[in-house]
Amino acid sequence: MKRANLVRALLALAVVAVSVYLTVTTSPRLGLDLRGGTQIVLETRDSPTTQADREATDRTLEVLRRRVDALGVAEPNIARSGDNRIIVELPGLQDPREAADVLGRTAQLTFHPVLGAAGAEKQEKGEKEEKPQEEERVLPDESGQRLRLGPAELTGEGVENAEAAIDQQTGGGWYVTVDLRGGGKGAWAELTGQAACSPAGDPKRRVAIVLDDRIISAPQVDPSVACDVGITGGSTQITGSFTQEEAKELALLIDGGALPVPVEIIEQRTVGPTLGEEAIDASARAAVIGTALTALFIIVVYRLLGGLAAVALVCYGLISYAALIALGATLTLPGLAGFVLAIGMAVDANVLVFERAREEYAARRGKGARSLRTAATEGFRNAFSAIADSNITTLLAAGLLFFFASGPVRGFGVTLSIGVLASMISALIITRVLVEFAVSRRAVRTRPAVTGISREGRVREWLARRQPDLMRHGRRWLAVSAAAVVLAGSGIAVRGLDFGVEFTGGRLIEYSTARPVDPEEVRSALADAGFPRAVVQSSGEDDVSVRVDELSNAQAAEVQETVEEVGGETEKIRDELIGPSLGDELRRGALIALGIALAAQMLYLAIRFRWTFGAAAVVAMAHDVLILVGVFAWLGKPIDGVFLAALLTVIGYSVNDSVVVFDRVRELWGANRKMPFPTVANTAIVQTVPRTVNTGLGALFILAALALLGGDSLTDFALALLVGITVGTWSSMFTATPVAIELEARSSAPPPRPSSSKSYAAAAAARADRPRGGRRGDTGAQV
């Protein structure tokens, strides 16, 4: 065994061994959409005195962490996202009302002097109401009386701790004891001392305790307190006719600490545990069956080498899974889809290698016993550039998902990136080690037919016999593509786009009812209950979804009660709340991601190939995007974050196909720079059709399994990819290539230089397609 092969074998063994160890010993971190629970995203806002920067957000996070711990949720997770966002994950929590109330309240506790009553008393005496001074505030107390408050003399920062207790001696009910610290003790004594100077019964003898712009208590200072002396000792009680729950919640908020800056809930997602379990089971079935069908397909087509590639696919699964665990990445439902989808990427790399090996073997047939081993080695070497380029463009799309998407869709970008890298390791290292070991065996060398590369395949043989000139009518293909774009675009104009709550803001709740319900009946019941603008749709087989622009947690409980009246016992299986600001941001992010995706792909292809190739690939990508969006518009499918993930993945697939064609164009054109470009392009398409067909079929097996077995939540995702990959296969041959021919006809740039690593097959193909001259019977041989 050569030293390079030995190094690859040891590296492959080490990677697989580490992957097996991590898989056996470590459990994955499941997202809330797989294990059930609630996720709340809060955004910090500027206050009059504090800017909501990274430092203030970090302090807010620590306060929220204490509040979350006090909720008693098992294994909560809280982390900062960006400079001013905090993500709180609460596994198992199905009713987010208490958590949202506790986390969303700022607990801005302040103590104010009362300057007198406002409004009602002066109007009764016929006096003109005084205008509040600039620093005054007017708030109603717990009985509804409006009080004029002076500037805060004490804030929550002077509070040491707070505890709820009940007055068992007098039966006065629940109250909260507040212990003060540091400067808070002196400020409290001064504040109560000033109030004690007013006569009993005067509003000015009261002290207002304000929580989040609401007076929770405004007690009179006891007559025993002396003027200018106040209450000393650093302890006080807050009374206000509290129930036990209200007193404990208030003590929790005060003891947890006042937030340095206000926060706003901009996103809230709740997933029922049954939905998560069903999603895991459905995705696992789809992965197993899809992988088995794909493995069977490549074994039938490539025989022994296909079987070795199937073994490498199993290793790919181990490596991807272990990488997710090692990085501590959260596995989400779209992430599972990305994990399964990346199997298609691994198949693509193997198909590229085996098709190149077939070409090399056919070109070297009869050149000696080493031709089989040499063809396999050359297949890996010559396919490397196309594999690298296509995977890099997919990584660009996955990276854009990570930076511009949010929630579970971001997990799809992470999983897809890991899957792409693992597929390259699987195809270029593991498969190569296995293949080179196999073709070195005497039993295999003497029986080349078992390898699957000794014949060119039925598709290639049929094309060789027919020699079709596909680019003879390039403009006709462009007309067909343009007609398809117009037809799809008319769907956007006629039907419009149904944007999901991620892009519009609002709240979407999905319910599972005990008996089937008619959406119209639910819609009518909700209108009678005070929700006339609720959009009700069927979801899955027996479920129903309700979408409303604005809906509080209390109103959500009313909606569920209404649905229960119609459908019997009802279980909430999904709940998504997106604030309007976040919806605008996500919509902008989606457009930016698409724009950058097109620009980045064009720039990369222009650098790696030619600007004409890059522009042609971008035209094909735009063609695929418009058709896919138009199909979803005609079908009335939602345009949401999962669709965005599918769309960017389709862009990656579209570029993959274009890269393979243009890589072959560059190779053939470099081998014969005098050959007309349309001839070169046509030859490249004909030579790459077997790869396109086999890769497309391999991906279709995976996607069909996802569509049929992946559950309702993955059906639209798989449908988008099925449409996108089908359209992308067409556009790489009949849109991108004709556009490149038209652009090259107007370009003065010279043909590419001959490659220093030109393949034997490419040279043979160039000679075969070279225009014949000279006398009859001239073979074209030169000396």
Overview of this structure, please?
The chain is α+β, with helices and mostly antiparallel strands. Helices cover about 60% and strands about 15% of the residues. It contains 24 helices and 21 strands. A hairpin with a 5-residue loop joins strand 9 and strand 10. Helix 18 runs antiparallel to helix 19 and helix 19 runs antiparallel to helix 22. It is elongated, with a radius of gyration of 34 Å. The C terminus is likely disordered. Belongs to the SecD/SecF family. SecF subfamily. Belongs to the SecD/SecF family. SecD subfamily. It comes from Streptomyces desertarenae.
Explain briefly what this protein structure is:
By secondary structure, the chain is α+β, with helices and mostly antiparallel strands. Helices cover 59% and strands 15% of the residues. An 8-stranded antiparallel beta sheet has the order 3-4-2-14-20-17-19-18. Strands 5, 6, 7, 8, 11 and 12 form a 6-stranded antiparallel beta sheet that branches. A 3-stranded antiparallel beta sheet has the order 9-10-13.
Calculate the terminal CA-CA distance, rounded to whole Å. Answer: 38 Å
- Taking all Cα atoms into account, the compactness measure Rg is 34 Å
Helix proportion = 55-70%
Beta-strand percentage? Answer: 5-15%
Family: Belongs to the SecD/SecF family. SecF subfamily. Belongs to the SecD/SecF family. SecD subfamily.
Membrane topology: Multi-pass membrane protein
Main location: membrane
Biased composition (Basic and acidic residues): 121-145, 767-783
